[in-house]
């Protein structure tokens, strides 16, 4: 059993080793994370242990890919990017209500503006620009005291989350992005430093985009409540 | 710039990640899974996941490689665990990790990787064994204790000692390891 958050003894140091090896699970993992969040010495130990595991990861013989492996990977990625055009007339499923819904008028105005740009020769610059044309922009709001996060939905259907001036996550943690609908929360991206842009891996229209703080390197389900969220486009 | 196509710039990011790290990713996956097909499956998934978040990473930072290989290892460990849950134990999962050192490939291993191999070889047998089971087989400390018929407390302290020795050995490869 892990001691009080401020206690730091042999047990905590042993658990730090297991944590760095990604072998803690369930209740032990949750307890250690509570301790870890407030323990600088454990943060230092885990960082040092992770340097060891990083070296172990490259201590094995490299291996060639089989013929066609690279091509299959690129085809899979290209397939993901070639989304069907966004159907603005299709009724979107009700998003999880964390924030008041954005204005439908703004969505249509953005779509009209995009169509005008295309009509005026935007297409001459190539389908790449067509695909990345911003269609809808939604600011995430919530409890974070610094910085902004904005989801931009592109014409292709891809969504990019722009982070601006968010505080760095606590040591050993990352920001994880989720797309939430009636079926639950799906992982959609990671930011280690709260800056820059993330291409989200999930469709967002009609859903909620949320950010939580998670232990590095992130996980399959949120372990805390979102610090920022917004419903996208309905 | 690549040929005009939807998302050409983003595919270039995936290509850069792949070209930089696929040998190490496949090497790690194969070492963990002992099956070329399974290794390629999880490496493909790991690159897709890395690519989706790649906009936030500077490819020249060393930590991108570490992060990507963590994605590979986590997926491999999940695959190993699901194999272990199946009624028929896959023979390849029981192979002794110590049999896997292939010196002929050392020329293609990085300085860090060679230092780690040397550091592992310098560990007392019981400490090397627990690290191999923890890192390369993804067994939890209770599973390792079962496998070795040792107390859980002993396994936890051995893992801690082993990581301490590896840290010292990696920080200064010339220094004899005196602790633990």
Briefly say what this structure is.
The complex is a heterodimer of chains A (234) and B (180). Chain A is an alpha+beta fold and 234 residues long.
Which range does the strand content of chain B fall in? Answer: under 5%
Q: Give the termini separation of chain A.
A: 47 Å
The outline of chain A comes out as globular
- Average pLDDT of chain B, rounded to a whole number, is 81
Helix and strand sequence of chain B:
HHHHHHH
Radius of gyration of chain B, whole Å: 18 Å
Give the number of helices of chain A.
6
Uncertain regions spanning at least 5 consecutive residues of chain A: 84-130
Could you characterize the architecture of this molecule?
The complex is a heterodimer of chains A (234) and B (180). Chain A is built from six helices and eight strands. With 234 residues, chain A is α+β, with helices and mostly antiparallel strands. In chain A, strands 5-4-7-8-1-2-3-6 form an eight-stranded antiparallel β-sheet, covered by helices on one side. Chain A is globular. About 20% of the residues of chain A have low confidence. The longest helix of chain B is centred in the N-terminal third of the chain and has 26 residues. Chains A and B meet through α1, α3, α4, α6 and β5 of A and α1, α2, α3, α4 and α5 of B.
Using brief descriptors, characterize the structure shown.
heterodimer; A: 234 residues; alpha+beta; B: 180 residues; mainly alpha
